[in-house]
Amino acid sequence: MDEPKFNAMAEVLLELGTEVEALGEVLCRDENFAALHLRELQAIDLIAQKQRALAAILAAGFSESEMRRISLEALRSRFCGFMDDSVTCCEVPIESGPSQDALGLWD
Fold first, then answer.
1. Cα(101)–Cα(103) distance, rounded to whole angstroms?
2. Residues near 70 by Cβ (< 8 Å), separated by ≥ 6?
3. Which residues contact 96 (CB under 8 A, 6 or more apart)?
4. Can you tell me the distance from the alpha carbon of 67 to that of 76, in angstroms, rounded to the nearest whole number?
5. What is the pLDDT of residues 6-29, one digit of tens each?
6. Reduced to 3 states, what is the DSSP secondary structure of residue 62?
7. Is the pLDDT higher at 66 or at 93?
8. Exposed, middle or buried, 45 (CB in 10 Å: 0-12/13-18/19+)?
9. 10 closest CA partner among 44, 48, 61
10. Averaged confidence pLDDT in the chain
């Protein structure tokens, strides 16, 4: 399933991931800011990682092999339901809706 629209979306996600990561790097240069906002900076990094993983899945045409390569458990567990059940991919059940703060990043 190599559709131009999926490739275009993947490119945008990849660009956004790169831009978000660059923003985080700029903010990390200020040691005082970084010390006060470590959790938020980690959240920025996680957002960039998720965007890159989603971009790879889109670019690969939603292939199961690409979904299995996801190293972020936060994403990997959400894609288990779309993969062949004969191959174990995770033990985390897919919940009905996203929690407001699944990672405990915000007070």
1. 5
2. 53, 57, 76, 79
3. none
4. 7
5. 899 999 999 999 999 999 999 999
6. coil
7. 66
8. middle
9. 61
10. 79
Q: Is pLDDT above 60 for 59?
A: yes
Q: CA of 25: how far to CAs of 2, 28, 29, 46, 80, in Å?
A: 33, 5, 7, 13, 32
Pair of tokens at residue 102: 């699944």
Q: Which of 20, 106, 6 is nearest to 62 (CA)?
A: 6
Query: Would you state the pLDDT for residue 95?
Result: 43
Residue 47's identity, in one-letter code, is I
- Give the number of other Cβ atoms within 10 Å of residue 10's Cβ: 20
Number of helices and strands (H, E) in the chain? 5, 0
pTM: 0.68
Among 43, 103, 50, residue whose Cα is nearest residue 72: 50
Confirm if 78 and 94 have CB atoms less than 8 A apart.
yes
Distance CA 41, CA 55 (A): 21
Q: What is the pLDDT of residue 62?
A: 80
